[in-house]
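Lab notebook, design round three. We kept the backbone fixed and only want residue identities now. Task for the bench partner: fill in a sequence for the structure below.
Input structure tokens:
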């Protein structure tokens, strides 16, 4: 349980759901420090306590911020790098918003809501990668963007969220191509249907017990964050399919 020994990570959307589970798993895997980011201060502080209890010797930094705001992104990166003495090995762009709920068709989609979804789900990952790259280039690192099947197929009613994930897929591919000759690798993961607050809000009529618990899909993220995956760059993974087994088999 030390695949991330000595590494420093920044995880957005980490007060609950997948982000929180990733932070807890990273702590158990020996990370030296984790910065967690979310908008809600109370939930974020609860998350910080959980993570710190899981790894008392690890640095846990909680940054209350809204990634849809460029000035908050500046503060997130500056605070994180200051706390970690300029070091960052892992960036997980997990923060996401579903937008209007129940989700309207595009014809009825409010413009401000549409913009907010794009700012959170697409512009924020672009800016975060851009801002942390100088700290990652020298020692190398792993950037993992959280995508969705709604970023591959346009579903009616998924509006701005799906469009933002289409954009994130293209953003990931472009960053990966431009960083091909560097020590920084970029991959993106579709975690599949999970029992999270956001998914319950998106599909209130569905049975959430049929969806995976976030802790069931963390293995591929840990693998991609670790040095074991150093040869994987510019690839898309589906956490609930056989991608993790294929990746580890190929690496072996």
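Proposed sequence:
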């Amino acid at each position: 349980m030390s695949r991330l020994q000595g590494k420093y990570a920044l995880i957005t959307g980490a007060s609950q759901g997948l982000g929180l589970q990733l932070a807890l798993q990273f702590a158990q895997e020996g990370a030296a420090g984790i910065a967690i980011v979310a908008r809600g201060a109370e939930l974020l502080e609860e998350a910080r306590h959980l993570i710190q209890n899981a790894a008392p010797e690890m640095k846990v930094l909680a940054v209350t911020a809204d990634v849809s705001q460029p000035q908050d992104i500046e503060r997130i990166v500056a605070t994180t790098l200051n706390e970690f003495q300029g070091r960052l090995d892992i960036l997980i762009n997990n923060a996401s918003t579903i937008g209007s709920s129940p989700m309207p068709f595009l014809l009825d989609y409010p413009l401000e809501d549409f913009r907010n979804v794009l700012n959170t789900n697409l512009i924020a990952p672009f800016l975060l990668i851009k801002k942390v790259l100088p700290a990652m280039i020298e020692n190398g690192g792993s950037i993992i963007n959280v995508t969705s099947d709604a970023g591959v197929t346009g579903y009616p009613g998924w509006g701005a969220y799906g469009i933002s994930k289409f954009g994130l897929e293209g953003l990931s591919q472009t960053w990966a191509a431009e960083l091909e000759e560097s020590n920084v690798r970029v991959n993106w993961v579709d975690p599949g249907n999970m029992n999270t607050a956001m998914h319950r809000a998106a599909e209130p009529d569905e049975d959430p017990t049929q969806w995976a618990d976030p802790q069931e899909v963390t293995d591929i993220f840990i693998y991609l964050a670790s040095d074991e995956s150093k040869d994987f760059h510019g690839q898309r993974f589906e956490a609930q399919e056989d991608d993790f087994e294929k990746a580890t088999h190929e690496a072996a």
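Keep this in mind before ordering anything: Strands lie at 8-12, 33-38, 59-64, 90-93, 141-146, 184-190, 236-238.
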